[in-house]
Write a structure and sequence with these properties.
The two termini are 36 Å apart. The chain has eleven helices and 13 strands. Helix 7 (178-187) links the parallel strand 9 and strand 10 (204-208). 35% of the residues lie in helices and 20% in strands. The longest helix has 16 residues, at 278-293. It is globular. The structure holds NADP nicotinamide-adenine-dinucleotide phosphate. NADP nicotinamide-adenine-dinucleotide phosphate binds next to helix 6 and helix 10.
Length: 306
């Protein structure tokens, strides 16, 4: 008779990894984050595993920054297949995996790890997930767009790199800490030395987080992307007010916690088209599934699960 095993917990910790008790089906993929309780990845990935008849489960792991290295060692020993990393682990991870692919190296952040024969490979699917989300939401390719990104952290770096790699028409990076935005723009400089000429505005530019700077740029961009956490918490303002936005814009908020983030409400009020980060979450997750299992992800099943 088959032995009945324990059912999966909502959230695991490093202590669980240290004295691992498996469940049925076994947990072999998961997400590390701090916090991680809010993550929607388990529902999406577990639906994909079930649909693909892969006898595994995907779980949440609350791992603190100081625990990341040991937690990665433990999942390697436990022969996990792969992981997602979310805040705050993406930036630290490149130093802790055996190999880092080119995209993740250039972005300086890893959000997907594949484990094979005790070796770990780091990838970044946020940028490519973003490009697919924009195509799906607005039926347009990044290469045809003038883009303004709000933020210069992990998500913004992946998005900016993807825009640069796609040779988008123009890229503006607005960040609170101006120097950080400037450093990111400098890293991307060589992608923007091509022949596209757009007139009086530079193709690549970092700007200050100031109303007058936004006002000037809005007339010279097509897509505005919020890659800051502003709008994540109840009561947050919109990073850009409706007054600053305009009907010609496409507005993408990487936040997916609410149907209408403050930025999306402001965009709609201004007559612009807007979408939230669920589509980016979906596509970065589908790309992760394909890295782990080397087969197409059941995209519609994952979308429905979200
Ligand atoms: P991060 O690395 O901590 O970067 C945060 C960025 O936001 C920094 O540039 C920071 O500016 C800026 N910022 C923070 N508070 C601000 C404020 N009050 N006003 C203006 N700017 C502010 O975070 P991250 O990993 O990039 O994540 C950012 C957001 O992206 C998160 O909310 C997350 O929901 C979203 N995200 C979504 C997906 C998806 O699949 N949809 C994937 C990844 C991330 P300074 O440099 O000045 O501090």
């Amino acid at each position: 008779m088959k032995k009945k095993r324990a059912s999966a917990k909502e959230v695991y910790t490093l202590a669980d990894l240290q004295s691992w008790r498996d469940v049925d089906p076994p947990i072999r993929v998961g997400i590390f984050g701090d916090p991680v309780e809010h993550s929607l990845s388990p529902q999406m990935q577990n639906a994909a595993l079930k649909h693909s008849k892969i006898d595994m489960q995907y779980a949440r792991f609350h791992i603190l920054p100081a625990e990341l290295s040991e937690a990665l060692d433990r999942v390697r020993e436990l022969e996990f297949v792969g992981l997602n990393l979310t805040l705050p682990h993406k930036i630290a991870a490149p130093e802790l995996v055996d190999r880092v692919d080119d995209d993740a190296k250039q972005i300086g952040a890893v959000n997907v790890i594949k484990i094979d024969n005790g070796k770990s490979d780091g990838f970044n699917t946020d940028g490519r997930g973003f490009a697919r989300a924009i195509r799906e939401e607005f039926s347009v390719d990044l290469r045809d767009l003038r883009v303004m990104i709000l933020g210069a952290g992990g998500a913004a770096r992946a998005i900016a790199f993807e825009c640069a790699k796609s040779h988008c028409e123009r890229l503006v990076i607005a960040n609170g800490t101006f120097e950080k935005g400037e450093r990111l723009a400098e890293k991307l400089r060589n992608f923007f030395e091509g022949p596209k000429v757009l007139g009086p505005v530079p193709r690549l530019q970092a700007i200050r987080w100031e109303e007058s700077a936004f006002q000037f740029q809005i007339a010279n961009v097509d897509l505005v992307v919020n890659a800051t956490p502003v709008g994540l918490n109840r009561g947050d303002p919109s990073p850009l007010s409706a007054r600053l936005l305009a009907p010609h814009l496409m507005v993408y908020d990487t936040i997916y916690s609410a149907e209408r983030t403050p930025l999306i409400s402001a965009a709609i009020e201004a007559g612009a088209r807007a979408a939230n980060g669920l589509s980016m979450l979906l596509h970065q997750g589908a790309l992760a599934f394909e890295i782990w299992f080397e087969r197409p992800a059941p995209l519609e099943v994952m979308r429905k699960a979200l």
